[in-house]
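This entry is retained here.
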Amino acid sequence: MIDKSNGLLDKFIDNINNSNRDIKIILILIIVLLAATYPMMDYAIAEEVTVNDMSIDENETNDFETRKKTVGDFLEEQGVVIGEKDVVSSDLDSPIIDGMDIEIRRGFDIRISYKGVIGDYIGIPGTIGETLEVNGISYDEDDVVSPDVSEAMTRDTKIAVKVVSTEEIVATEKIEFKTKIDYDDTIDVGITKTTQEGVDGEKEVKYLVTYEDDEEVSREAVSETIIKEAVNEVMVVGTKGAYAMPSGGGGTIAGYTYTKMYDNVKAYAYYMGEHAVAASGKLAKRGTCAVDPKIIPLGTKLYIEGYGYAIANDTGGDIIGKTVDLYMSSKQECYNWGVRYVKVYVLE
């Protein structure tokens, strides 16, 4: 007789082993599928994010946890609205990173003067320099920004940016001739002769010109070239019959070089306000005086004892012969001066 019980037992054991293999294969497939789909599941680990919401009046800082993937999605999740004038420190499509700091600066309307034109711009909390950067306004170290770029913005800040530029220009200018005076005691007083005509010269001057918003603010001569020398005018002034002749020879007085000196000249003082016009057509002020043009021509440079440097640019009915009238700064100074007898030096 054949024992069939052992054959049935072996077949049962084989069936169990085959079933275990199938279960193992199924489990492995499930694990692989879960690993592949895990990143797409909505059960990602929450990331920590800090948001600093800044307006010109106040700042608010809050900490959040989020499973959103981008900055834009996260802000939408939190109900944070970004206006068209607001500035966010990260792009809205930037990925969320654990420990991320997001800064929101709320924009507001301001007016900026740029290159002389006032326009509408956006101001943000922070420095003036940051507001200029947001608006695409560039400047360099030579430009004039007011207030300084390091100062904090306020709602009332008024910004002006003046763009500074320079250029070199060349100008042709006149060299005015000078007048040399010779005194001659063989010619009667009151007679003046021109022995050499004056001729203006010419020079070429190179200037460095500085502009602010295309408006010239300074001009500095950096070099000059003489094209034609000036020829001095020479005048002979008669002094025969006048008061005592000036001393011969020259010298220096108070740092000035003089060619003649008159002694014992009667000196008055006068004052006619700050806008008085002298006989020469020029302003009468301290440092000018009235003379007898028959003796001392208008335009002569003088040094007067007790008074100082003066230019003869005025005349007067009582200023005849050995007399000068000195312009003072006030009536009180005239009273203090009174009438004096002084030495008058004729300067080069």
DSSP finds four helices and 21 strands in the chain. The chain has a mean pLDDT of 87.
